[in-house]
């Protein structure tokens, strides 16, 4: 059922480094608002990725079902399919800075990430609590900061390139809010992207968040509770984590799914509710949180969507934006099957083949 809901009215700079003198010097030399300095060009493919997205932590990342190498696997498949020819064709983001994080996050929350116990809870990898924080910063939090920087860069590319779309091969940390992380989400990249777009001076006054991850996006919902310039369409399995009743007050259109919802029901509800939301809100930017934990067999999403259903889902969302000339940024969010990377790559190739990615031949 699709129904309308009304809303109710790390560390300091040193601990955000890898813990080595060499890396500290790199951070000091970089400084400033790094993502804002990267030029946006119409000649580049607006796909955002760099190898540092991958979480590698002596095998501990395997204790969580999340595919820590998903972005890299997708990138290689897109190269194999010819969509990307060289690394210079796409955007490589910088690591988000402390200054940028504090545009949304509280200092108290950033400081809490100095403690490995807190990070272990967020990452859902209990053994991390025994690991020195400098290694936690380097091997888990730093990749997440690169992905967060990637979300901001992708949003800028979608807005400024004139192409009208961008894809970050990571990000979508929708369980993280300004003062609390969780669900493998340590940084609030969606809230950060919203605030950046709103302050861009480019007339972005109505942002539609289309959250199609299998889980409720409670993090940014808590952050944006009172912001009427944002319309949230959240379509999720209501029987699973996080079941955040307070955050639900921020959702303007909720699509609550039962476990094992199949393609037919899923796509019918999506097409109706997304069309309805766009017509009602008339957004001038869309943030698309494209989780693939909706796939059948996913151990956490518990829905029954086929790979073909994911491809059709993404095609409908992109077509809805392109036909109305609404810039769209896609974030990958959750997806806990090893097959997710191939499904996402196939979906992006399909978007190219259907002429839904302008300039990509």
From TrEMBL:
GO cellular component, one term: histone deacetylase complex
Catalytic activity annotation: N(6)-acetyl-L-lysyl-[histone] + H2O = L-lysyl-[histone] + acetate
Entry EC number(s): 3.5.1.98
GO MF term (any one): histone deacetylase activity, hydrolytic mechanism
Principal location: nucleus
Low complexity bias (residue ranges): 7-18
Enzyme kind, highest EC tier: hydrolase
Bias (Acidic residues) ranges: 20-29
Residue segments, region Disordered: 1-33
Cell compartments where the protein resides: Nucleus
Gene3D superfamilies listed in its UniProt record: Histone deacetylase domain
Keyword line: Chromatin regulator, Hydrolase, Nucleus, Repressor, Transcription, Transcription regulation
SUPFAM superfamilies per the UniProt record, alphabetical: Arginase/deacetylase
InterPro entries: HDAC_classIV (IPR044150), HDACs (IPR000286), His_deacetylse_dom (IPR023801), His_deacetylse_dom_sf (IPR037138), Ureohydrolase_dom_sf (IPR023696)
Residues annotated as domain Histone deacetylase: 64-349
GO biological process: epigenetic regulation of gene expression
Described purpose of this protein according to its UniProt entry: Responsible for the deacetylation of lysine residues on the N-terminal part of the core histones (H2A, H2B, H3 and H4). Histone deacetylation gives a tag for epigenetic repression and plays an important role in transcriptional regulation, cell cycle progression and developmental events. Histone deacetylases act via the formation of large multiprotein complexes.
Family: Belongs to the histone deacetylase family.
Subunit annotation: Interacts with HDAC6.
Protein name: Histone deacetylase 11
Organism: Anopheles quadriannulatus (Mosquito)
């Amino acid at each position: 059922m699709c129904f309308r809901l009304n809303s109710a009215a790390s560390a300091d700079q040193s601990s955000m480094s890898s813990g080595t003198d060499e890396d500290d010097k790199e951070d000091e030399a970089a400084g400033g608002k790094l993502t804002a300095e990267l030029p946006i060009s119409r000649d580049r493919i607006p796909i955002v990725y760099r190898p540092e997205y991958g979480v590698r932590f002596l095998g501990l990342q395997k204790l969580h079902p999340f595919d820590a190498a998903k972005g890299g696997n997708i990138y290689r498949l897109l190269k194999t399919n010819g969509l990307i020819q060289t690394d210079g064709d796409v955007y490589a983001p910088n690591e988000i800075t402390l200054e940028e994080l504090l545009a949304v996050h509280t200092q108290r929350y950033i400081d809490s990430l100095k403690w490995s116990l807190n990070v272990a809870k967020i990452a859902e990898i209990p053994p991390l609590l025994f690991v020195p924080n400098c290694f936690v910063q380097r091997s888990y939090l730093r990749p997440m900061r690169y992905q967060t920087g990637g979300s901001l860069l992708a949003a800028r590319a979608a807005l400024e390139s004139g192409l009208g779309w961008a894809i970050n091969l990571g990000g979508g940390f929708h369980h993280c809010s300004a003062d609390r992380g969780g669900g493998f989400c340590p940084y609030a990249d969606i809230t950060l992207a919203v605030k950046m777009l709103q302050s861009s001076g480019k007339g972005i006054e109505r942002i539609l968040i289309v959250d199609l991850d299998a889980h409720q996006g409670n993090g940014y919902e808590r952050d944006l509770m009172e912001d009427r310039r944002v319309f949230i369409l959240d379509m999720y399995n209501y029987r699973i984590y996080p079941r955040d009743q307070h955050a639900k007050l921020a959702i303007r259109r909720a699509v609550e799914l039962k476990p094992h919802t199949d393609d037919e029901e899923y796509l019918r509800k999506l097409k109706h509710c997304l069309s309805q939301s766009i017509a009602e809100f008339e957004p001038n930017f869309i943030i698309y949180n494209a989780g693939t934990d909706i796939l059948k067999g996913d151990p956490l999403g518990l829905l029954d969507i086929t790979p073909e259903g994911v491809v059709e889902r993404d095609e409908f969302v992109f077509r809805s934006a392109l036909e109305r000339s609404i810039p769209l940024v896609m974030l990958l969010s959750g997806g806990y099957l090893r097959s997710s990377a191939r499904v996402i790559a196939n979906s992006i190739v399909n978007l190219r083949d259907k002429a839904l990615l302008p300039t990509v031949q």
